[in-house]
Amino acid sequence: MSEASGEVLDVLVVGGGPVGLATALHLAARGLRAEVLEPRPTPIDKACGEGLMPGAVAALARLGVDPPGLALRGIRYLDGRREAVAPFPDDAGRGVRRLDLQSALAAAAAVQGIRVHRAAAGEIRLLEDGVLVDGRRARYLVGADGLHSTIRRAAGLDRPVHRPARYGLRRHYLRAPWTDHIEVHWSPGAEAYVTPVGPDEIGVAILSTRRGPWAEQLSAFPAVAERIRDAEPSSTVRGAGPLRQRASAVARGRVALVGDAAGYLDALTGEGLTVGFAAAQELAVCLSRDRLQDYPAAWRRVTWRSRALTAGLLAASRMPAMRRAIVPAAASFPPFYRAVVRSLAR
Description:
Layout: E1 9-14, H1 18-29, E2 34-37, E3 51-52, H2 54-62, E4 70-72, E5 74-78, E6 83-87, E7 93-95, H3 98-111, E8 116-117, E9 124-127, E10 130-133, E11 136-143, H4 150-154, E12 158-159, E13 167-174, E14 181-186, E15 190-198, E16 201-208, H5 214-218, H6 222-227, E17 232-233, E18 238-240, E19 246-247, E20 251-252, E21 255-257, H7 272-288, H8 295-317, H9 320-332, H10 334-345
Parallel strand pairs: 1-2, 1-11, 2-8, 5-14, 11-21
Antiparallel strand pairs: 3-7, 4-7, 5-6, 9-10, 10-11, 12-19, 13-16, 13-17, 13-18, 14-15, 15-16, 20-21
Helix pairs in contact: 1-3, 1-7, 2-7, 7-8
């Protein structure tokens, strides 16, 4: 496809991760011709907690995608002294290896005839009536290329971040899960997420402002370290960050941002894919109507609850006294904690 050939796509999606592929699938379902640019080979891995909320599982089902994994029944907070447990109110979540999730979405895209080009977005030209990316013309360009989005920068939508940076590390272990919940272990300066992803495998993800090797980070969570002391690692350590990213807007001209590329607060609540899939569906609706101008309001509508909850938890966790009170408060007021988990499950 080239400028000279006169062929014009409806939408070019940059980024072949779960949200990018979900966006392309929603676009195809609405009769739009979409193609994807992704330089990495499938399956694509990424450091993440790998716990899909029930809302994300339902969103995948609407796309005909059913990745393998282990049912998750709720969320448990622990701090070494107390714990708070809340079940998901209706449907189960699912622990899914990122490799399996991306593979399932890539297979669904192939069935729908969506072309995924093994290429990065190089030269980007923003035109009045569309975009031109390395000779590929499209009426719209979607940036679904993650935290450090090339498209966000190219569209002039990047904004600086001034708060202390947070980073994530993740590793898997061959060990039968001891729980059917997502466990969030709180220490004075970090959180560890334990997610069952198979009958004989768990994932452990650590979020912290302090950078350091895996063994050092894991030592802050003696209960988790003891559980996996004799377990064989089944993946290498992967990192992500800085997590906080800002965008001045989620759309400009003929460009839209979705998923982490649209701005990201933190992985604290584990809702990244849930809100990413919801935003992908809303974006497809807007583009099918040729009304990209409606997308910012739709994005705010489907992401505000997650952004408010994450911002509140982050603010509390930055103050030592309030951070120490998070798990005791959740344990002392079960209806409040259940309401929080119910919100996460949507």
